[in-house]
Amino acid sequence: MDIKDSVAVVTGGASGLGEAAVRALVAAGGKVAILDLNQERGKELQAELGPGAEFHTLDVTQVDRIEKAIAQIKDSLGSIEVLINCAGFGGSMKISGKDGIMPSDWFPTRVDINLVGSFNLIRSAAPVMMQNQPNEQGERGVIINCASIAAFDGQTGQAAYAASKGGVVSLALPLAREFANDGIRVMSILPGIMDTPLLAKNPPHILERLAKQVPFPPRLGYASEFANLACHIIENPYLNGESIRLDGALRMGFGRK
Question: Is residue 207 pLDDT above 90, yes or no?
Answer without folding.
Answer: no
